[in-house]
Specification:
The chain has 412 residues and is of the alpha+beta class. Helices cover 33% and strands 27% of the residues. The strands form 3 sheets. Strands 1, 2, 3, 4, 5, 6 and 7 form a 7-stranded antiparallel sheet that branches. Helix 1 runs parallel beside helix 4, helix 2 packs antiparallel against helix 4 and helix 6 packs parallel to helix 7. The radius of gyration is 22 Å and the shape is globular.
Length: 412
């Protein structure tokens, strides 16, 4: 067994032997011993996308529920997340190395080490490989413990927020050969129940975004009924119109008011894109540097079938390789959102990965509101690469040519 293979086996065995809450710490300890590192730690990106928490070190998981939380803005941690590339700098104690911990474009966190003065390329390659393995360790052990979920939260959630978070997909980002997407939600003070979702089948990408009426627990319960109905219909193989019908009927039958929403389906082999719009704001599309709204037909919101008994229409939308599509809730457009020129901002962020673009767009609305949103601001940002692509070009857990820095370099 070669050195790389034995290193992989050792990391997986160490994680498997440990309790789920200690899995990352024992992997960090293995790396400290193997590379002679003075320090090894794992930092997890929180749900805001604006901070990281130092969750585990080679010495073990930090005591209790206390962890160092670090704002990413302007930091080296933000640089590594944005570029998805290894960072290395000499210090008085040795080489400080920071590596992204990612899986299919989902930026889970960072692995930080203090290595001897000259570790060599071979060691750096092994560190990058270990970071990729660590992503799978976090995902697998997250099924058994709340530690990683806790680490992603800057503050304890309310009951409504806990319900709303559970309605989001397990990974907010996804990279595939044909597309790259990311969703982001900036919650309002009272939480308005916004959700987004996606799923990838063998030949189809499903995307949805929804916005129930109301605030707090009522909107969270409506979101639960709505998203569960949509997921159940999708998993049963229902078409777009039937998915919309089931969501509409579920809200009406269970007395949870109404909600706007948008369902998108893209055939990965042909590139054909179809949409159902249930009373929702039009999507935006950027093509060749110019952004504009897609003026589609708008049907009645979910939950109103009794008073508005009309079928939902499935519409074709024009989606071409190189397009960026933005699905958004009305919190991005109304009240404080009116102060933000979204089309212009979408154009200015064309060189950013959807992960950073989505965060920039929602953050602009929060800043316009002085940090206190009256309505959730939510987006799903999708880059369509085209059906001609069938395999991803990756470096560890991310396609670095799609990363924000990679895009900027290519365009320059």
């Amino acid at each position: 067994m070669g050195g790389r293979e034995s290193g992989l086996s050792r990391l997986l065995a160490a994680a498997e032997r440990a309790a789920p809450v200690d899995a990352v710490a024992v992997v960090a300890e293995d790396l400290r011993r193997r590379f002679g590192a003075a320090e090894v730690s794992f930092l997890i990106v929180d749900l805001t996308g604006k901070a990281v928490a130092r969750l585990a070190t080679a010495a073990g998981v930090e005591g209790g529920r206390e962890a160092e939380r670090i704002a990413m803005s302007g930091s080296v941690y933000e640089e590594v997340i944005r570029t998805q590339r290894l960072y290395q700098v000499a210090t008085g104690q040795g080489q400080r190395v920071i590596v992204p911990v990612s899986n299919r474009g989902d930026a889970i966190g960072l692995l930080e080490l203090l290595l001897p003065a000259d570790p060599g390329d071979g060691v750096l390659d092994e560190v990058a490989e270990a970071a990729h393995i660590l992503a799978y360790v976090v995902i697998a052990n997250g099924r058994f413990t709340d530690l990683y979920t806790w680490g992603k939260r800057s503050r304890p959630p309310t009951l409504a927020a806990e319900i709303q978070y559970q309605m989001l997909p397990p990974s907010l980002s996804c990279e595939a050969a044909q597309f790259t997407l990311c969703g982001h939600l900036e919650p309002s003070e009272d939480l308005s129940g916004d959700t987004f979702d996606y799923a990838l089948d063998r030949d189809t990408l499903h995307v949805s975004i929804t916005d129930p009426m109301g605030h707090d627990i009522n909107s969270a319960l409506a979101a639960t009924v709505l998203v569960s109905a949509l997921r159940g219909a999708r998993r049963a193989g229902a078409g777009l119109a039937e998915q919309a019908d089931r969501a509409d009927k579920a809200l009406a039958d269970h007395g949870h008011g109404h909600a706007t929403g948008q369902l998108l389906r893209i055939n990965l082999h042909t590139g054909r894109a179809q949409l159902v719009n249930a009373g929702h704001p039009w999507p935006l599309r950027m093509r060749e540097g110019t952004a504009q709204a897609i003026t589609c037909e708008v049907d009645h919101p979910f939950g109103l079938s009794v008073s508005v008994p009309h079928p939902y229409r499935v519409q074709d939308i024009d989606l071409r390789p190189g397009d960026r599509l933005l699905m958004l809730t009305d919190g991005m457009l109304e009240r404080h959102g009116e102060k933000v020129d979204l089309l212009a901002l979408l154009e200015r962020t064309h060189d950013l990965h959807p992960r950073e673009a989505a965060l920039t767009l929602t953050s602009a609305v929060r800043e316009a509101a002085g940090g206190r949103l009256a309505d959730d601001a939510t987006v799903m940002c999708l880059d369509w690469h085209g059906p001609q692509h069938t395999l991803r070009q990756v470096s560890s857990g991310a396609a670095t040519q799609q990363a924000s820095a990679g895009r900027t370099k290519q365009e320059r």
